[in-house]
Specification:
Elements lengths: L5 E5 L4 H12 L6 E6 L7 E4 L2 E4 L1 E2 L10 E4 L5 H10 L3 E4 L28 E3 L3 H16 L2 E10 L5 H16 L38 H14 L5 E8 L6 E9 L5 H10 L3 E3 L11 H4 L5 E8 L6 E8 L3 H17 L4
Parallel strand pairs: 1-2, 1-6, 2-5, 6-7, 7-8, 9-10, 12-13
Antiparallel strand pairs: 3-4, 9-11, 11-14, 13-14
The structure holds NADP nicotinamide-adenine-dinucleotide phosphate (NAP).
Organism: Megasphaera hominis
GO molecular function: aspartate-semialdehyde dehydrogenase activity
Pfam families: Semialdhyde_dh, Semialdhyde_dhC
Length: about 350
């Protein structure tokens, strides 16, 4: 495309939508016209982007007439508006889980499987934030020797549950420190019948339980990894946990490969991988932590070490900003890739 695209952000008032706006400004993302869309609750509110004031509009199918790129962060409304926008010729890059496992929809991290973008039919899905952060560390290892098994535990920030998750941790912290009763109503998931405090606590449940007693979030990590690495034989055991951290997910991972790898080769491969950084110096107590990986573009990998018992396994620790690389940045990078390759 030679002219600048018409861009719409759906869910512009949310945690991911706000990040889209920051990144569009920071990365000088090109657009000729920008539309900010949200629910009827936000219609009429004003927002400034690149020094220009915009009025939020209620998202409707017609909102996508003439739009080239739709950056979707509106949650379940994607199911209705995604196909409507795609039908109107808009390339939808969607952050919800709606289309991720649809065989007609590519699921993409540009550093991991950019080749899948080419077969899109106007909808491209952004993977789950925990899957993205994990694969940014594991794809370079997979390129050295095929991954056979992954055991992963996540430490997921409350902002993964959107702006309401952030508010819940803030309010509960203030209540707890003032001796008041905490009143959880969002976590582990708004739609569930029971809620637990996240302040000064850990919740080993993200989203609902499936028939196999794994949560939906855990099964997303399994299924999405299989789809993106094009290998459904990889054995993956996830445990996803919500932690009282505002921003940036962390993950403890054991990865087993077909061949024995040296820690040195793994370090080199991760460091050479775009978007990943090795931060690993035990002597200096240097390792990635959510407080410091927040607002960063890259995913940080440390504590890289051989498994004590299995010579083909490596253990590592990863942390990355799930609103950036786990959501808005990844989606914007897909759009940037498509613009650079004349795919829009
Ligand atoms: N937060 C993360 O770290 C993260 C990471 C990866 C993926 N995601 C996914 O990204 C999406 C957005 O998440 P979020 O964390 O940004 O959520 P959020 O903070 O709760 O924001 C939700 C946004 O969607 C809008 N919205 C809700 N219902 C709508 C409707 N019927 N029509 C139009 N707009 C509607 C809201 O508008 P109003 O303000 O008007 O209500 C708001 O702008 C979700 O699918 C989420 O699973 C989030």
């Amino acid at each position: 495309m030679t002219k600048k695209p018409v861009v719409a952000i759906l869910g512009a008032t949310g945690a991911v939508g706000q990040e889209f706006i920051r990144l569009i400004e920071e990365r000088n993302f090109p657009y000729s016209t920008l539309k900010l869309l949200a629910s009827a609750r936000s219609a009429g509110k004003k927002m400034t982007v690149n020094g220009q004031e915009y009025t939020i509009e209620e998202a409707k199918p017609e909102s996508f007439d003439g739009v080239d790129i739709g950056l979707f962060a509106g949650g379940s409304i994607s199911k209705e508006l995604g196909p409507e926008a795609a039908k109107r010729g808009c390339v939808v890059i969607d952050n919800s889980s709606t289309f991720r496992m649809d065989p007609e929809v590519p699921l993409v991290v540009p550093e991991v499987n950019p080749e899948d973008i080419s077969w899109h039919k106007n909808i491209i899905a952004n993977p789950n934030c925990s899957t993205i952060i994990m694969l940014m560390a594991l794809k370079p290892i997979h390129d050295l020797s095929p991954i056979k098994k992954i055991v992963v535990s996540t430490y997921q920030a409350v902002s993964g549950a959107g702006k309401e998750g952030l508010d819940e941790l803030r309010e509960e912290t203030v209540d707890y420190l003032n001796g008041r009763e905490m009143q959880p109503h969002i976590l582990p998931s708004k739609s569930l019948p029971k809620h637990y405090p996240i302040a000064f606590n850990l919740i080993p449940q993200i989203d609902k339980f499936m028939e196999n007693d794994y949560t939906k979030e855990e099964m997303k990590m399994v299924n999405e990894t299989h789809k993106m690495l094009h290998d459904a034989s990889i054995a993956i055991t996830p445990t996803t946990v919500r932690v009282p951290v505002f921003r940036s997910h962390a993950e403890s991972i054991m990865v087993e490969t077909a061949d024995e790898l040296s820690v040195e080769d793994v370090r080199k491969a991760i460091q050479a991988f775009p978007g990943a950084q090795v931060q690993d110096n035990p002597a200096e107590m240097d390792y990635p932590m959510p407080l410091y990986t927040s607002e960063k573009y890259d995913v940080y990998v440390g504590r890289i070490r051989k498994d004590i018992y299995n010579p083909k396994a490596i253990n590592l620790w990863v942390s990355g900003d799930q609103i950036r690389k786990g959501a808005a940045l990844n989606a914007l990078q897909i759009a940037e890739y498509m613009l650079a390759h004349d795919m829009i």
